[in-house]
Amino acid sequence: MNAKISRREVLKGTGALVVSFNLFGPVSQVLAQLSAGPDLAGDLKATSLDSWIAIGRDGMVTVFSSKVDLGTGVETALAQIVADELDVQFKQIKMITGDTTKAVDQGITAGSRTIELAGPQLRQAAAAARQELLKLASQRLGAPISKLTVTDGVVSVLGNGHKVSYANLLGGKHFNVQIPATGNGWGLKLAPDVPAKNYMDYKTVGKSVPRVDLPPKFTAQFTYVQDVRVPGMLHGRVVRPPTVAAKPASIDEDSIKNIPGIVKVVHEGSFVGVVAQTEWAAIQAAKALKVTWSTPETKMPANPDAVYDYLKNTKGFAERPGMPPRGNVEQALAQASKTMEATYRWPFQMHGMLAPSCAIADVQGDKVTIWAPSQGIFDTRKRVSDLLGLPESKIQVLYREASGCYGRLGTDDAAEDAVVMSRAVSKPVRVQWMRADEHGWEPKGPAQLLTVRAAMDASGKVTAWDFLDRSFPWTEANGIPLVTSRQVGLKAPGQGFPNGTGGGGDTYTFDNQRIVASAIPWVQPDPTPLRTSPLRAPGDLARMFASECFMDELAAAQGVDGVQFRMRYAASNKRATDALTAVAKLANWQERPAPAPTSSGNIAAGRGVAVSARSNSVVAVVAEVEVDKSSGEVTVKKVAVAHDCGLIINPDGLKNQIEGNVIQGTSRALMEEVLYDSSGIKNLDWSSYPILRYEKIPQIDIRLIDRREMPALGGGEPSIGPVPAAIANAIFDATGARLREAPFTPERVLRAMHAGVTSTQRA
Amino acid sequence: MARISLRVNNQSRVVDTDPTTPLLYVLRDDLELHGPRFGCGLGQCGACTVIMDGNAVRSCSIPVSGAQNRSITTLEGLGTVQHPHALQTAFIEEQAAQCGYCMNGMIMVSKVLLDKNPHPTDDQIKQALNGNLCRCGSHVRVIRAVKRAAGVKA
């Protein structure tokens, strides 16, 4: 909803939605009245129970969270957790999310960690609230807490039938209770001393509660960030340089003077944008504006081959283990009776948000309001604070949902674009990137080069596993610097954060085992359109592609069935073997070595398996493919997934996520590669960067492994990781051709089929 | 600038705008409709789909002058949360979206499909929707929802 709701209205339980764009001042006053301490935006104290939960006079329970729904349904799932802990019905919960003036910072919404980390935060807040409500009920009803039960927000005394509702106890009033809180962001721990419910007592958790956001979305009654309209709002569009460091040598404003409604050409540092009265005028002007850019000092790489060579020959600035090393890998390799080695390539890929970046900013003197789809509203506030030189307390960031972003909106560039343009015209400005802006300048998932070596003894047992991932960092500097900040001259320190470490064979146990992720410094000192940010399951697809295909190569070299081979080395990892067993059953897996017997027709069919873990969620996948032997075209017919993310909050919501992961993973495996040369990105639209369409959507079968006794873990991205590996293994099974470079385009499949690619074997 | 008459969701509307403006921006900015959405502006993704004289069209690629005196239906014209169209009900029942941004196009194209072919096969549904992109991967649910709606209509 676009409407703003104040804490006071929440407490009054009037249900009134106050639509206003001038609440920034009043909100602070309301907050000041509400809790003893803070009256500054975003300065809510985690230690105040009132920062988290409010009971309305109507019995509605409002939950305040900085976590945002990125289109995954997590808001519904978090509400389920609170409903159970408070003993209220799901429909009694109202979530207010993503407002820097109404929520404690629980850290960025990312990494499939929201259910895992914010879930317990809200659960403990709810448990503390319930404890407090029971204390009040005990006094009111004259009965000890041990004699009280709660159903749908009504407290009853066992035996005598006396009752009082939460609304009667506290409706419209504050808790005025302090709770223990340590740490911050993802690491925030709330009220650890309050006992939470046993999983056996969950009523709402574990049910497929329908998502609250979908009915308005299907009827155009939902307000995406793209739909936000502010009185007096103007429209802005960006004009991007070839690289961030390139400066406009000249801007010919006469080139757009015939377009009616132009308000201003905004030029600051290397930032150029156009503000206009209408969206269409801004679009035309940004396209027509003649800008001559200085020759950038920083060049794009010449082509993907040059990037892989660079990755191979450049020393990493950070080497991080994917797991604690075991034994002595070098010694085991030297003493082996046989060794194998293979190298895999993973390209730059796009998040490919269906909706290009969009944000609205209203900079009025020293007060700033931003409507943005940022994964981290407090991060965006900090960045804008740095950009404008204003204290964070003067800036309010209001989350409004965009399209699915898969990590891209941790880097919410459009918010800064809007701020710079709004400041220039002293009016609210809505900025929306065009498709070419988004494809061209979205931060990409980085290219990776991966090498795996294994040693076998005389019996064929794998005695050593040596895995090396060479990857660019997932950001080109520490933090995730935005384009506009860089353009106006803010420096971003550091060499960037490494691109994750998981999925390099950490599911298995070998006597000697080494998994290393090496972060390779950037080719260029300044950001180009190849700048990076975390892309769904960062780095995992490539590492799992390499590790799980190499496991398949080892199995095939020994003539052993792929599932059976994995079971041997995952034996001490029960969740992995359970997932493998489950997926093999689901896919009706018949044990035999790969490749399959050669088929006589033009279509070759095969199946492949992969298993891996991310953020402690374990996923096993079987893909079934058909390969057109004459064209090399691969069709994924069926994908089976066994998924274990601990306790399941919402089974249908989880299945929805898994289906999406399978489809996006199939798309990234078969089709997606950012193409570039020294002049820039080559795929600036959907025809040059195609994604999977309906005609190629596989059948998807899912087996959820619910571990009620475990904590709830993430489901947003673990299941995308093993998908490309399972597909590559299925292509090998069908054709005997081993794909070691993604995506598996018809050309690459044909080349592999004809070249008879093999791993380096030394007997 | 020109005054242009449109018929949108069975209502007559007059807008004063540059006649070259794509219909999408007039629907969104002048008429404040949220159904049609900007995805690419190139006619490649389908997020901006509306129904014009019974056909699904890409509103980002039609100048508003070309929509003059045509009958246009947007997602708003189908139903509301309180009174949803059978397709909208089916999408809700199948929970057929993640972010939902592309779903305007999915529903509008499906509406035209079912109007012309009340009992489509899976392949016919896929074929009809093939030009509409979804990045979240809600395809299998959308197909189920369209089949469910077709059943409701039968």
Short précis:
The complex is a heterodimer of chains A (763) and B (154). Chain A has 763 residues and is of the alpha+beta class.
Describe the structure.
The complex is a heterodimer of chains A (763) and B (154). Chain A is α+β, with helices and mostly antiparallel strands and 763 residues long. Chain A folds into four domains: 7-222, Aldehyde Oxidoreductase, domain 4 (2-Layer Sandwich), CATH 3.30.365.10; 226-296 and 357-432, Aldehyde Oxidoreductase, domain 4, CATH 3.30.365.10; 304-349 and 443-519, Aldehyde Oxidoreductase, domain 4 (2-Layer Sandwich), CATH 3.30.365; 549-762, Aldehyde oxidase/xanthine dehydrogenase, molybdopterin binding domain (Aldehyde Oxidoreductase, domain 4, 2-Layer Sandwich), CATH 3.30.365. Chain A is 28% helix and 22% strand. Chain A is built from 19 helices and 29 strands. In chain A, the strands form eight sheets. In chain A, strands 11-12-9-19-16-17-18 form a seven-stranded mixed sheet, with helices on both faces. A six-stranded mixed sheet of chain A has the order 14-22-21-20-15-29, with helices on both faces. Chain A has a four-stranded mixed sheet with strand order 23-24-25-28. In chain A, α10 links the parallel β17 and β18. In chain A, 58% of the residues are buried. Residues 14-42 of chain A have low confidence and may be disordered. Chain B is globular and about 45 Å long. Chain B has helices at 23-30, 86-93, 103-116, 122-129, 139-153, and strands at residues 2-8, 11-17, 49-52, 55-58, 71-73. Chain B folds into two domains: 2-77, Beta-grasp domain (Ubiquitin-like (UB roll), Roll); 86-153, DNA polymerase, domain 1, CATH 1.10.150. The mean pLDDT of chain B is 96. Chain B has a five-stranded mixed sheet with strand order 2-1-5-3-4, with helices on both faces. Helices cover 34% and strands 16% of the residues of chain B. Chain B has 154 residues and is of the alpha+beta class. At the A-B interface, α6, α7 and α17 of A face α1, α2, α3, α4 and α5 of B.
